[in-house]
Specification:
The protein has helices at residues 29-44, 66-73, 81-89, 108-111, 142-150, 152-159, 167-173, 182-197, 201-212, 215-233, 236-246, and strands at 5-10, 13-18, 50-54, 97-101, 104-106, 118-121, 126-128, 165-166, 178-179. By secondary structure, it is an alpha/beta fold. Strand 2 (13-18), helix 1 (29-44) and strand 3 (50-54) form a beta-alpha-beta unit. Bound molecules: coenzyme A (COA).
Length: 257
Amino acid sequence: MSAEVTATSASGVQVLRLMRPDKKNALTRPMYKALCDALEAGDADAAIAAHVLTGSGGMFTAGNDINDFLAAGMGAAGGVNEVLRFIRLLPLIKKPVIAAVEGIAIGIGTTLLFHCDLVYATPDATFATPFLDLGLVPEAGSSLLMPRMMGSHRSFEMLVMGDTFSAERAREAGFVNAVVPADQLEKTAMRAAKRLAAKPPEALAIARAMLRGSPAEISARVDEEAIAFERRLKSPEAREAFQAFLEKRPPEFAKPT
Ligand code: COA
């Protein structure tokens, strides 16, 4: 387990917490590995009925660590394997996942929510997928799941325009179940998780699988996006966007000649 992801279990619920507040809980490769290991272990553990995923320090996550993006784009050993493992796991997680989102949810912090079963957010929560502005393309099945859940126009706003959705807009768009005060967020998620833990497990698993449909289509889209994404990581546009972020300056993209 990475020190920056903690996993604790009680009352049939596994709580996964992102804990890298000095970097806005941006996800590093060890953090993805820790998340995958814990999700797989929880799925295999008969004592666990549901996973709760949350952040810390008043934020969910600023998405993938941009230093890791830059390194992967420059061909660093191992490429983006842990990220791929995580996004491939998302449609295949066997037990319900409940997200509790406070503050920022950027990039994968938003796209992973479309694989969750329930999402609760605080009034200050914001959701954004600035892939395009980083020279990248949608990932984690978002190009399929977002239009399916909230329609193509809202998805275009988010995935292409890079617009930020407020908690209320996210609730209205259908990917947040309820907006709750910060001091009620984890209690609300835990209450729902414990209700799930009290349900007949076999019936729960069958009903959830029916609601989610076949994961094959989602997995195929995840892989298709990942090929394009990995190519884009190496593109001059993406490298300029990453450098600009790290140097705290606006990016300068070359205009096509
Ligand atoms: N990757 C790596 N480091 C990140 C990060 C990320 N995704 N998001 C934030 N950080 C780091 C910053 O570099 C900064 O580090 P420093 O203190 O060593 O300079 C620290 O976290 C605090 O971030 P900062 O930008 O100073 O805070 P802010 O409150 O002004 O802005 C955000 C917060 C989240 C809006 C801004 O950090 C941001 O836009 N992050 C990038 C989000 C993103 O594009 N993610 C990828 C999606 S695909």
